[in-house]
Structure formats: structure tokens, C-alpha cells
Amino acid sequence: MCLEPTGHYSHLPLETLVQLEVLTWLAHPTDIIRSIGATRGKNDRIDALRIADYARRFHDKARLVTPDHLRTNKLKQLLTRRENLVRRKTMHHTQIRNLNKCMDKSLQTAFTRIDKAQITALGKSIKQIEALITEVIAADAEHQRIYDLLLSIDGVGPVLAAHLLALTEGFLRFKTARELSCHAGCAPFEHSSGSSIRGKTRVSRQAQSTLKYLLHMAAVGVTARKGELQDYWKRKVAEGKHKMSVLNAIRNKLIHRIYAVIDRGTPFVRRTEPVTA
To answer: How many folded domains does the chain comprise?
Structure first.
């Protein structure tokens, strides 16, 4: 069985197919679209035929879904709900700072009071979701071990650690740091043909947006704290490197540290002495 991922709609069908021991794999929508060339028209029947044709031609690319892969489904659903709640909370903060000031003066106080009440309620809901996330991770000894290792790395907090655990399916999905960097949109790629250089080496826009954002915020955070990565940031900026380029390099450093810690199975140890030339 070959399926196209459809977000939360895929969870129950996948669990059922795995329980029935039906060989099942999820094909990335972009791979399907690019494999069929120019097309005309679209409906559910045509889409099903195109997915079936892709599965027949590219069965060697199949990555079968196993019970191990499904262990992170509950964690993914909790993280998605948390992300939605945080987005709604941010919206109310924005309304207090900007939109309410433009309302009729007789309504400003009432609107601000309503927004603050919503922020308080959403904050409580977010804490409840985070408690559930902690419980789900603790219920699996291997996930808890990896989670603790991730938290030992400077710049990796609970939210980023949980997302890494879910998106990598317990680090079974991406075998190398380079693969995860590609998925997160942090890996630079060359653009050239023969002797012709078509633009600078740059990252791809195809990326998991949430993971890229969390890695970016982690990179910004470590540059503000004393340590090896802050020293690296200051040195490269002083050399004239573009700040976004340096931040992307720090994102990659964090990913490589994550894989180094997972491979060793020991917590990250911060360097206490400055690096010399």
C-alpha cells in the first residue's frame, strides 16, 4: 500500500494498516508530482492512479512504515496542537500591541481585557500540552534517553528536543547529520553547470519550516551566551562573513553536535578552554 501523507488524516489509516501487517509506505507529494511530468486535470480518482503508478515505478524507494515509526505519532499530534496554541497566543499579543490601539476608544479597554483573558487561558492549555509531551516521552525508555541527551547540548531546549525526536522518528528516519540538515533547509548546495556558475552556493527552500525555525532560534540563542559558538559567531562576523551565513553554519554545527551525542550515547560536554589556532 502506498499513501500520500495527509497530515492528521493519515494517523488512523497508518495504524490500522500496520496492525493488519499490510506493507505500507508514505510517498512524499513532491516526489510524486515531479515523477509524472506535465499533467492536466485533477480529482481523487486521477490522484489515486498517479500514486499507484509512482509506487509501481519507484518501489525501490519505499520506506516501509513499522510500529517503531508509529511510536512518535502521539508526540507529533501533541506538538502540532502546541504549535497551534502558541500561534493563537501570539495573535492575541499582536492584537494588544497593534490592532486594539486602532479601535474605537470606547472598545479598546474591553478588547484588551478579552485578549488578556484568552492569553491566560491559552497559556494554561500550553502547559497542559507540555506536561502530556513529557509523559509521552517518559513512557518510552529509548525516547527518554535520547531526549535527555539532546537537552545536554547548549542551545537545545525541551521544544526543539521534542520536535527532533518526533520528526526523526526517534532518529531512525535520518541516518546522518547531512540528511537532517537537508530536511531542515540548512545544508548548502552548489549551483553550477560545467564552467558556468549559476549563483552562489545556497540552501534550498525545500525545508521543514518548523524545524528550521526552531534551529534558527537555537542558533540565535547560543550567539547571545558566552561559549564556543558565541566566539565562533564573533570571529566570523569580524572576518566580514554575512550574518545569516554564519547563523546557518551554527545551525549545522548544532545538528552535527546532536548526531555526535546520539552516536556516542553520552551527554554533551562543554569546552572549558578557548580554541587556539
So the answer is: 3
C-alpha cell at 29: 507529494
User: For 59-99, what is each residue's pLDDT tens digit?
Assistant: 888 888 888 788 888 899 999 999 999 999 999 999 998 88
Distance CA 38, CA 157 (A): 44
Q: Is residue 151 part of a domain?
A: no
The number of C-alpha atoms within 13 Å of 34 and in the hemisphere containing its C-beta is 6
Do 29 and 84 have their domain in common? no
Residue closest to 29 by CA, chosen among 61, 54, 56? 54
Whole-structure pTM value: 0.83
Residue owning grid cell 524507494: 61
Question: Quick check: 276 pLDDT over 70?
Answer: no
DSSP 193-219: ETTEE-S--EE-S---HHHHHHHHHHH
The reply to whether 88 and 42 lie within a common domain is no
